[in-house]
Design brief:
This protein is an all-alpha fold. The chain has a single domain, classed as 434 Repressor (Amino-terminal Domain) (Orthogonal Bundle). The protein is built from six helices and no strands.
């Protein structure tokens, strides 16, 4: 899951591996390994999440739980305000 999320996040940003490698101070080979299943160090995951504009939670699980929580709260508030 992590490896797929890393690849999808990079591709979603329209970035090539070499571009990401330069921005997060690693090598293209490391990115290839991470996207193939090797787990990166937490510092690298943080840098990638920041670069891609996603949470660590999203990279690891594929779900942004903070965003999901906020959306749930918003739905409850809307229901309350609409008298449901």
């Amino acid at each position: 899951m992590l490896s797929n999320n890393l690849r999808e996040a990079r591709e979603g940003c329209g970035l090539k591996k070499i571009e990401v490698a330069k921005k997060v101070n690693t090598t293209r080979s490391n990115l290839t390994r991470w996207e193939a299943g090797t787990i990166p160090r937490i510092e690298s995951l943080i840098a990638l999440a920041e670069l891609y504009g996603v949470s660590l939670d999203y990279l690891v699980t594929g779900v942004d739980r903070v965003l999901a929580f906020k959306e749930g709260v918003n739905r409850l508030v809307d229901k309350h305000l609409n008298g449901e």
